[in-house]
Design brief:
Helices cover 49% and strands 10% of the residues. By secondary structure, the protein is an alpha+beta fold. The strands form 11 sheets. Strands 1, 2, 5, 6 and 9 form a 5-stranded mixed β-sheet that branches. Strands 14, 19, 22, 23 and 24 form a 5-stranded antiparallel β-sheet that branches. A hairpin with a 3-residue loop joins strand 29 and strand 30 (1051-1061). Helix 1 (52-61) runs parallel beside helix 2 (78-95), helix 23 packs antiparallel against helix 24 (769-790) and helix 27 crosses helix 41 (1248-1280). It is a multi-pass membrane protein.
Amino acid sequence: MLKFSIFIFCFFLYHIVAEDGHCIWYDQCGRNSKGKLTNCEYNGTAKLLTDEIALQTLETACGMVYNGQNDTYTCCSSEQIATMADQFGMAKLMLGRCPSCYYNFRSLFCAMTCAANQSNYLSVVETGTSEKYPGRITVESINYTVADDFAQRILDSCRDVLYPGGNQHSLDTMCGRPYDKCTKESFMQYLGVDNPAVPFPIYILFQNDTTKSETYFNQTTFLCNEPLITQYENKTACGCLDCLKSCRPLPPDVPEKKFLIFNMDGWVVIAVICTVFLLIVFHGTMVILPTFRKRPTIIIEQPTEETSLLRVTVRTKKTGCLISIRRRTEQYLERIFFRLGLFCAQHPFIVLLTGTIVIAGLSSGLIKFQVTTDPVQLWSAKSSIARQQKDYFDKHFKPFYRTTQLIIVPDDQTFETFDYLSPPAPYAEYTFGPVFKLDFLSRVLDLQTKVLSLTADVHEKNRTVHLSDICFKPLEPDNENCTVFSILQYFQNSRENLYKRIGDDFFTWFDYTTHFISCSQAPTTTNDSLGLSCFGDFGGTINPFMVLGNYSDAAYANATALVITLVIENSNDPEKVQLAEAWEKVFLSFMKNFTEEQKSLRAAGEWNKTANFTVYYSAERSIEDELNRQSQSDILTIGISYTIMFLYVTLTLGHIRSWRTCLIDLKISVGFIGVLFVLLSVMSSIGFFSYCGIAGTLIIFEVIPFLVLAVGVDNIFIIVQHFEHMKDENYPSIDIRLATTISRIGPSILLTASSESIAFLLGALTPMPAVQIFSLYAFMAVLIDFLLQITCFVSVLALDARRQDSNRPDLCCCVPVSSTLPTDNPNEPKSKGILQQIFTKVWTPLVLGNTYVRALIFSIFITITCLSLSIIHRIPIGLDQKLSMPKDSYVLDYFYGLENYLSVGPPVYFVVNQDAIDYKNIREQDLLCGTSGCYSTSLLGQIGEALRQPKLYYLAQPPSSWLDDYFDWLQSTNDPPCCRINNQTHEFCPATLNDTLCLKCPITFQDNQRPSPDDFQRYIQYFLIDNPGEKCPKGGHAAYHDAVELINRTEVKTSYFMGFHSVLKTSKDFISAMRSANEIAKNISKTILNNQTRPYHDSNKLEDYPVFPYSVFYVFYDQYLTIWRDLIVNLIYSFTAVFLVTCILLGFDFHTAFLILLCVFMIIIDMFGVMYLWHIELNAVSVVNIVMSVGIAVEFCAHIARYFAVQSGETRLIRARIALAEMGSSVFSGITLTKIGGVVVLAFAKSQLFQVFYFRMYFALVIVGAMHGLLFLPILLSYFGPQSLEFYDEEKLARQVSATNTSLSSGININDDEGDICDSSRKL
């Protein structure tokens, strides 16, 4: 609280005005009955001031009335000058940052106290009798007439001056109301009358009649943006933080740029134009023009449904070089896989034993498996700038505090008006919000007291943990109270102080509400009208925006919620964290019981027993606890999902010939082992990387099994179904048939597995740790699964085929079935499965049977992809934190409280990097500070400019500046001054110590009252241990002890300047706040480096930035600044891998590789469209799912595309029909049906995260992938597919058609005797 005393000695009696040019007082007459110093009445001329110390003091404090050593006549004695200078010391701490403001303020009271002609504008209103000097008259109140515009000029020059230590404006304290609502009348009223520290009433009157200029005081003043240049003073103008006129003009508001064409989204318009253009070109070249061409066709007699699909033009064409390479590559791969399949079929036990040993060895690594649950390590790369910022802050200062918070909302939301006697109260009426009802505050105090008294038993350490054992104590060891931010701290958590009242039987003068008004306007008040301090019992200030909620425009009295925050020390020591977590667990249990009890009382209608308020609460461990609980609750859901997929595979894998052979034809054991191989591949992958020391994540268990099942089960169906189909052909043995199957299917499986594995391996190059780990584990799992399928699974299938040939039932193979069972006729074609018949008879003719249907479907897919591409930029970035919590979590209620009641955002620290600044150098200081003399582009200057644009930079409160407060602390002229040294021990003397041995620190001041380099280093340690108080409110112990890191207690190594973000509610707010803070810090860094003539590098290395921002949430949201870039780079790696691997394994078939890549690309683009339409945000979880989608998309496309590429046929349409009929059912049953059942179950998960990011994305992936693979891709191939490896002549085509007609199966089975791999295999 600003205190200043004006002591006046009067000449005349009560209501008598002194003659012009004379004094009305001189010297001091002791204290009156109220304990206030009084001035002695004196009606005479001014006296010559001869005291040298007083002259020096007057020259320094009141240069405007100082006329030299031998010509200074004053109406004040040396004692009055000393008292006035002492009180100016307090004013200097409040206003000294702005020299012109401080000068104008001093001129008002210097003229009143000491001017030789004070009687012209001062008049005595009331007098008294001196108790110290009986018989002498004292001045008890006066009128002080000043020019009307003079008071306004003082106010204008001081309005914006900050008091950094309290995150407030100085006029909040010195005007009795918020600075922006202060008028010259209220300003002068508070300075002269309302201020409790005023020794007697000074009624300041205004006069604007220029003809009576001799009857009021007026003097030249300085604008805040003008340098202070007088005979005795020469100082720079005020800085931007303290004077808006000193700030550079704000740039014009630039509206958010929107790409519009014809007032519509430009990207959508472009997409529509491109779609129309592509469709016109497509229909013109592929649909319309071919109708005008005449082509010879073969007419098939008596066409059937099957042969009608084979209307073709017969041509003969020479084989090109690329075709030859493709054929040779295909033959080479077939030979390799034939030999491999033959060996596995002939030596199943050797293969299975070897596989078991390898899998067991890899899986043994599970004993070393570690799970990374720390979100910092999961979502923030070690090399990211945000991670470097956090590591630096934790190392040089301390980890950000653990917070335990309660948001309390009263049930009664009515406002209330309080009446007071005014004066002495500043107002007659006050209107307060619901939280200011006394009974409500009393109940909150009860709850807070219970919380603060909670204890936790830590049995492992055999100790009891109190809050005082783990909390943050800013004034330790002088003050052992915990830091608790609460409105009740304005009353030091005392019920007696809360109920304190000053008044009489009829009127209230001051009570808890007036005390709150004083504290909300001036948190550093140490003694208000109620006789209470506004400091918390822990010794720190309580800013109203931290303890009140749901108010607007700094109208704190309108708050409808209270916020209580318990600050707990954080640490890198696990033992200390364990103690904190133990206490937090007890707190959460207490609050859970409290809230449940309140709910039960309300349900029972016992309202008189309820607390009549709602509490939203959370602790540091809350989110992690709830995530763990959520994971455990969804284990059953995930288990059911995988069980459904497992049962589907095991029960549908076999081809049942009839009910009599049902037990024999079942392949439950094969399906079970196939799925088991999938799970073993995941285990082996985990074990392998556990050996490598790469910790896993929970995503591995949630995503990779789904991925490998999609990939592996598809391959299982393809192998088994093709093995069953080849029963139609005659082979010497089961081993040869199985080897032939693998020779035909193996290259396709190799193609998909290789492209997926390499795509995932390249995906590990992304900087996001969670995606890196997922990609590595997925790469190894897919690779091991592929190896198991083409070796061990082939051996299992060979054993199962022998069982089936010996008519032994599945699962009970030791029991032979009756030999009377019908045997297969080798010459009788085998019936196809129901699903394949559907694809042959229904789906293929529907999709590829009609030219216009094909064109329509193709057009629809192209349109959807183009539109999806146009809305990608609309996908929101971030992760709604509510989605990560279970639906029944108390943390969801807390999030609701944060969004609706919190009125300030998280703190933001602007950290000065080590060795970036020479703090003792004045020029270097000017690059940081915000007081007068500092550069306008200094750190605090640029932050001040950003504060003027809160919507752009998301900053809410002025930053606290230890450097500015340190300057003020050194310059203090209080009695005693802030900086004192014991003359004998040379130890620091705090202002509260009354010891004659303590002398003012000898300080040498240089330009702009800056300390010399030696003095700067000598006294900084004392500033950081000085407790703030009434005599020295700028002591730095509470606010800055942790903000400055010292070397050898003298040299500043690094420091930070703390401010607050505005309220941040959405992911967009958090991301924008972080981006804007980084922008501010980079601009500051450029300024510092330019002044130091050093180059600026915009790099990813923290040491390249002299200043950087840090807030606790940056490390979690840093991923979003580059998430699109990282995702695009990852997709480019994956697409490149898919294209190259596909191209190589198809014998440099660029054509097919491109079409596969195009289809995969379209699936991913359509997935983005689904994300936008289904409100799925882009974050690390969805990025992992998108990367996974590439792998599954390859499965949907590659098998059909490869079958098409190697299939013989005259036209693309014929080959597309054959490929779809033969491979479509395997893809549909292996991926689509397998996944649908498992995915649907995820919709019933308790976790909203599972519902959004797993159910929605997986379901969309299965549907979108299936539609592209089974609908769009065949049509694409029918139009733009590559050439066949072999071109038929008419005779060969006739044989092909004849074979198709004589086949009893309805499928399109084309046998090429000349190119049959069976012939080749027999030659091997």
